[in-house]
Amino acid sequence: MHFWDKYGNIAQLLFVKPDHALLKAMVRFWDPTYRCFTFNEVDMISTIEEYSTLFHYDFRDPLRIY
After folding, report:
1. Could you tell me if residue 9 is inside a domain?
2. What is the pLDDT of residue 24?
3. DUF7745 domain spans which residues (predicted)?
């Protein structure tokens, strides 16, 4: 219960099936120097809202560590 209180339902991510094409694209466009995605010299960084949509998880609790 302590883990659940601290992290919520994040363990459900273990059951998400990965999209291999998406992972290949992420690896291709990831820039480790800047720690963001780069498309045609434009840096793109995901927002909390985008992660919330991708993972189907509500990240609005300010007291949880994500």
Report:
1. yes
2. 92
3. 2-61
Q: Do 65 and 6 contact (CB within 8 A), yes or no?
A: yes
* CB-neighbour burial class of residue 8 (10 A; exposed 0-12, middle 13-18, buried 19+): middle
First-to-final CA distance of the chain: 17
Domain that includes residue 29, residue range: 2-55
Q: For the CA atoms of 12, 16, 52, 10, what is the dihedral angle to 10 degrees? A: 20
- How far is the CA of 27 from the CAs of 3, 47, 50, in angstroms? 30, 18, 18
**Smallest Cα–Cα separation from 26: which of 14, 35, 16?**
35
Residue 61 lies in a domain: no
Q: How many domains does one find in the chain? A: 1
